[in-house]
Amino acid sequence: MSEQAIDRRKLQVSDEVAIQITNMNKWYGQFHVLRDVNMTVQRGERIVICGPSGSGKSTLIRCINRLEEHQAGQIIVDGTELTSDLKNIDKVRSEVGMVFQHFNLFPHLTILENCTLAPIWVRKVPKKEAEETAMHYLRKVKIPEQAHKYPGMLSGGQQQRVAIARSLCMKPRIMLFDEPTSALDPEMIKEVLDTMIELAEEGMTMLCVTHEMGFAQAVANRVVFMDQGQIVEQNEPGEFFRNPQSERTKLFLSQIL
Ligand code: ADP
Ligand code: MG
Asked: Any idea where the ABC transporter domain is (predicted)?
């Protein structure tokens, strides 16, 4: 690992809790999809979540911004407990950004409009200010020149960087990523990971479902392994990869590395 990569591990983590999940359980109908999940995320932590397909990774992060409801236990995000109270949901959604595998940009809106829609309509930011903020983040993800194009005119890697910029325009305190590079051609993966690395270096609290183990090694301060709806083990990346504890983790790593 390069010196620079090792330095990234020393990024600031504060004592403040960003996310606290306690004995959380979720069912889809009869199917018990998340079982007794416990997890504490400090502000500034960068957590990679991995595990086999169907293990509940997406469901877990979707519960954190209430795209899915849990049925038992507790989730507290930035001091707000997730309950059926709509005010809480709005507050949490505005503080938690999410980036999906399939970008989810609005195809009929320009890149700039994609980035200003929520700030204008949800946050009531004046249009001009929203556009300035959007251009700031489009420069940050290195595609300001695409602002007036439509998503369909951009490559997958560019679209995913727009999706990241769009999230950042809401000034989130926590970013959730659900396999942000798994729909991309190999040559575009790096440009998206580089954007995410930059965010990490700026101290963003990040939870990232990914099988990009190079990213995990370089940026994560903790890797969480899930299987069958449970957190099976978690560790700092060096130990996690060098010295996996459970047979399930060993098997998983042998399949992806
Ligand atoms: P992962 O992201 O780790 O692949 P998911 O969280 O997407 O796993 O899914 C976990 C399990 O829950 C899978 O068995 C999946 O089929 C099931 N599942 C996911 N979403 C739904 C849903 N909306 N309704 C019913 N079952 C679902
Ligand atoms: Mg998933």
From this structure: 19-253
Q: Classify residue 117 as exposed, middle or buried by CB count within 10 Å of its CB (0-12, 13-18, 19+).
A: middle
Cβ count near 144 (within 10 Å): 16
Count CB-CB contacts under 10 A for residue 14: 12
Ligand 1: list residues with CB < 6 Å: 28, 31, 33, 51, 53-59
Structure tokens at 208: 């990232």
pTM: 0.93
Ligand nearest to the CA of 227: 1
- How far away, in angstroms, is 160 Cα from ligand 1 center? 23
CA 194 to chain centre: 14
Q: What is the pLDDT of residues 186-225, one digit of tens each?
A: 999 999 999 999 999 999 999 999 999 999 998 999 999 9
Q: Specify whether the CB–CB gap between 110 and 146 falls below 8 A.
A: no
124 in Cβ contact with 116 (< 8 Å) = no
Q: How high is the mean pLDDT of the chain?
A: 93
Q: Look up tokens 């200010």; give the residue.
A: 129
